[in-house]
Amino acid sequence: MLRTIFLLSLLFSLSNASVQDFCVANLKRAETPAGYPCIRPIHVKAKDFVFSLGIPGNTTNIISAAVTPGFSAQFPGLNGLGLSTARLDLAPKGVIPMHTHPGASEVLFVLDGYITAGFVSSANSVYVQTLKPGQVMVFPQGLLHFQINAGKSPAAAFVTFSSASPGLQILDFALFANSLPTELVSATTFLDPALVKKLKGVLGGTG
Ligand SMILES: *[C@@H]1O[C@H](CO)[C@@H](O)[C@H](O)[C@H]1NC(C)=O
Q1: Which of 25, 43, 98, 120 has a 20 to 30 Å separation from 196 between CA atoms?
Q2: What is the DSSP string of 58-119?
Q3: Using a 6 Å cutoff on CB, does residue 60 contact ligand 1?
Q4: pTM here?
């Protein structure tokens, strides 16, 4: 008898868990750490589950690269699914500088051109590969990684993250684009103070 009750309650909780198939973002409400509140299912349309990443981003900038996000705010159907996506464009010589996503692993799928990509493990092992169209590379959660255009023509890729909020910390910005005093940056990185000052100048840091 107890066993039957247990099995029934398990079945009930399982079926209950699958009742809500999706939670299309209500963008009129504020985003919370758990995502946006859902719009009512009756208002959900097929187009909520579709997003276009077909247009290259503008790469006229200091890194000759652009990241076009497809997060819940742009792509409401993703809300609550623990995923996000983006398009990466790299002009010739374009670079996505060394960075980490504290909250997600990343899968990168090359669409066009050649991209040299790599990451550094916690053991400081280096994994670098030059990728061609159709190849996919995965970057484990939290590890420092980068992408560089390895060819003479523009390169593009789609990326998918294993979280709705992958987070982003760019190493050079963390070191040189804020008010951490030059002497502390220098003392904690072993870099020459003149170099620290120069990089602060380029990246908009002070101190
Ligand atoms: C790309 O960005 C640059 C620099 O902000 C700007 O001057 C240019 O007009 C933009 N190009 C397009 C097509 O939006």
Answers
A1: 120
A2: ---STTSEEEEEESTTT-GGGTTTT-EEEEEEE-TT-EEEEEE-TT--EEEEEEES-EEEEE
A3: yes
A4: 0.86
